[in-house]
Design brief:
Blueprint (H helix, E strand, L loop, with lengths): L1 E5 L10 H15 L3 E8 L5 E2 L3 E7 L2 E3 L2 E3 L2 H12 L2 E6 L2 H10 L5 E5 L7 H17 L2 E4 L2 H6 L1 H5 L4 E3 L14 H11 L4 E4 L8 H8 L6 E4 L5 H11 L5 E5 L3 H10 L2 E4 L10 H8 L4 E4 L5 H4 L6 E4 L4 H13 L1 H18 L2 H21 L1
Parallel strand pairs: 1-2, 1-7, 2-4, 7-8, 8-9, 9-10, 11-12, 11-14, 12-13, 14-15, 15-16
Antiparallel strand pairs: 3-4, 5-6
Length: 373
């Protein structure tokens, strides 16, 4: 079997959450005898050999609203699809819809539905007819959590052809931090702390976290960079939180791993549906850490189960967020129980192997159904 993944970016050009997921699927599929290729659009057109699979790149022509387009990708896609048995898309990316509907290869297609389109409402009005034609035409749609299926109007429309495969991460990608790195962070932070990991974007809800911290003594380390950084630092100054917050910026993996090992809990205050799952919640689960998140009707509450692996507080409720942090800080036995349950949930549901098995089963099923049609 040969699978072509088609997405806008990939390693080494970019390695965000979707790219990390594609990597795990391709690498795990190779161990199961399945060959994978990845096609993206990029300023660099050389093909990259990543060991278990190849990354092919078509020249980007234009980028509109974070959605790159490529004239040459149409031809490159057709070339690669001659040898592929299945194409695997990652939604949303409008250009992929155009290529799929234009190429009409007749081969089975799987699309991972990562998120509804939340912020670009005006663009959605224009894009919606194309989006619906695309989703009508694909063989199977894969959601990353049952929560998202239940709360997405788009997925409800296609429920009869939706499967659920949770995102998984590989523990081997998180080697324990060196003793020297752990000691350095202990010296720098100087005590117990909560941890946030992620890009500093509009939907991450960090302004709500800062409001919740006002009047407490809790320390929070914020790992990540992004367009909201300056605004958040200004808010921290207004609230008098400078002594409680440490902004590390974008940090090397070893530092992130060390902070995951050392933290009391992960706080994940995302407040918009743009946050469909939350890779850092999986990372906290892997390290056996309790979590605090907000209820936004997405996969975040599938990873962090209220009262089992941590607290899920009502959307926008900063007093409840503050209370959750207080409880974990003051009840280490409860925090330890939540952390142990989080680790068990990771092992049961969120390993990379379980994710790969889920996709391989779907690939085999759609090929079998095509042969029987």
């Amino acid at each position: 079997m040969r699978v072509l993944h088609f997405y806008k970016t990939y390693k080494p050009d970019s390695m965000g959450g979707v790219e990390q997921m594609i990597w795990h699927i391709c690498d795990g599929a190779a161990a199961r005898g399945i060959r994978s290729d990845v096609l993206t659009v990029s300023r660099n057109t050389s093909t990259v050999d990543l060991g278990s699979h190849l990354h092919h790149r078509a020249k980007v022509t234009i980028d509109i609203a974070s959605s790159p387009f490529s004239v040459s990708a149409f031809h490159r896609y057709r070339e690669l699809m001659r040898d592929a048995d299945i194409v695997h898309y990652h939604f949303p990316w409008p250009f992929a819809d155009m290529v799929h509907l234009t190429a009409r290869t007749g081969k089975p297609s799987v699309v991972t539905y990562h998120s509804d389109i939340i912020r670009q409402k005006n663009l959605l009005k224009v894009y919606r007819p194309l989006m619906l034609r695309f989703l009508d035409s694909v063989t199977r749609i894969v959601a990353t959590s049952p929560n998202y299926v239940d709360t997405s109007p788009v997925l409800q429309r296609y429920r009869d052809k939706v499967d659920v495969v949770p995102i998984g991460i590989d523990e081997a990608a998180y080697p324990r931090a060196a003793d020297a790195t752990l000691a350095r962070w202990r010296r720098e932070i100087g005590g117990k702390f909560f941890l946030f990991v992620g890009n500093l974007r509009y939907y991450k809800g960090l302004h709500l976290l800062l409001d919740a911290l006002h009047g407490t003594r809790h320390r929070v380390v914020i790992v990540g960079a992004g367009p909201m950084e300056r605004e958040l630092k200004a808010q921290a100054r207004r609230l008098g939180l400078e002594g409680q917050l440490l902004f590390t910026g974008a940090s090397p993996d070893e530092d992130k791993i060390a902070l995951l090992e050392l933290c009391e809990a992960l706080v994940f205050p995302s407040h918009l549906r743009s946050e469909a799952f939350g890779i850092s919640l999986l990372e906290a689960s892997l390290f056996g850490k309790p979590m605090v998140s907000m209820e936004i009707g997405t996969g975040t509450s599938f990873v962090n189960v209220n009262g089992e692996t941590g607290f899920v507080v009502p959307l926008g409720d900063t007093p409840a967020l503050r209370s959750a942090l207080d409880t974990l800080a003051n009840d280490p036995a409860l925090a330890a129980r939540f952390g142990a349950a989080a680790r068990q949930r990771y092992e049961a549901r969120f390993t990379a192997d379980k994710m790969v098995d889920g996709y391989v089963e779907i690939y085999e099923r759609v090929l079998r159904e095509q042969r029987q049609a």
